[in-house]
Automatic annotation (TrEMBL):
<keyword id="KW-0440">LIM domain</keyword>
<dbReference type="InterPro" id="IPR047120">
    <property type="entry name" value="Pk/Esn/Tes"/>
</dbReference>
<protein>
    <submittedName>
        <fullName>PRIC1 protein</fullName>
    </submittedName>
</protein>
<feature type="domain" description="PET">
    <location>
        <begin position="1"/>
        <end position="52"/>
    </location>
</feature>
<keyword id="KW-0479">Metal-binding</keyword>
<feature type="domain" description="LIM zinc-binding">
    <location>
        <begin position="54"/>
        <end position="117"/>
    </location>
</feature>
<dbReference type="InterPro" id="IPR001781">
    <property type="entry name" value="Znf_LIM"/>
</dbReference>
<keyword id="KW-0677">Repeat</keyword>
<dbReference type="InterPro" id="IPR010442">
    <property type="entry name" value="PET_domain"/>
</dbReference>
<keyword id="KW-0862">Zinc</keyword>
<dbReference type="GO" id="GO:0008270">
    <property type="term" value="F:zinc ion binding"/>
</dbReference>
<dbReference type="Pfam" id="PF00412">
    <property type="entry name" value="LIM"/>
</dbReference>
<feature type="domain" description="LIM zinc-binding">
    <location>
        <begin position="118"/>
        <end position="178"/>
    </location>
</feature>
Length: 208
């Protein structure tokens, strides 16, 4: 017999405390709208006789009568193997059969949301501001673009990315800058350097 899995109670929404009230309201409205328009629940059931031999919507392999299958009401009469019922982007299995759909594809909640809004690399919340900071393919709320070590604001300031996270020049030099072989002083992010066989010098007459 077919069975529809019961949706567990939705956990209380959590938001970054640094978000402005207006942005938090936009996030709540966006979440409610996409749950209403795109959220679906798969139906796990043995493949019925009339669907014997039909192809899996994802892999194309046939599904035989009595095989475990999954159908998705928002996506028409297609069927999937349970292992094929996964997020189009990250391929995470949607083992609880809760999905979001967009343009005929199924997504986990996280990657469906990212089709519409960028995500802050610091607080991990969606960004609804007109302005954000982008560096190395990642985005931040302007107020969250801070030094990873000392938390100094970096908007409009000089910074260096280390391991994908922003650092002020001072913290970067104290943590990552290597010493010059001649003078022993750190070779800062803005300094020109000369290298040879893995050794480094300031690229100036006094050192190299």
């Amino acid at each position: 017999a077919s069975r529809a899995l019961t949706l567990s109670p939705r956990p209380q929404e959590r938001y970054c405390p640094g978000l402005a009230e207006e942005e938090r309201e936009q996030l709540q409205a966006f979440s409610a709208r996409r749950r209403r328009e795109a959220l679906g629940q798969g139906l796990a059931c043995p493949v019925p006789g009339p669907c014997h031999g039909c192809p899996c919507r994802k892999c194309g392999r046939r599904l035989n009568q009595g095989d475990p299958g999954v159908s998705a009401s928002r996506l028409g009469g297609h069927l999937w193997h349970p292992s094929c019922f996964c997020c189009h982007f990250c391929h995470q299995p949607l083992v609880d059969l809760i999905y979001f759909q967009q343009d005929g594809r199924i997504y986990c909640g996280r990657h469906h949301a990212e089709l519409f809004r960028p995500r802050c690399a610091s607080c991990d919340q969606l960004i609804f501001l007109e302005e954000c900071i982008e560096a190395e393919g990642r985005r931040w709320h302007p107020e969250h673009f801070c030094c990873l070590e000392c938390e100094a604001p970096l908007r409009g300031q000089r910074y260096v990315l280390a391991s994908g996270r922003p650092h002020c020049a001072r913290c970067y030099e104290s943590l990552y800058a290597e010493p010059c072989q001649a003078c022993g002083e750190p070779i800062g992010a803005d300094c020109e350097e000369a290298t040879h066989q893995g050794l480094r010098w300031h690229a100036r007459a006094a050192c190299f």
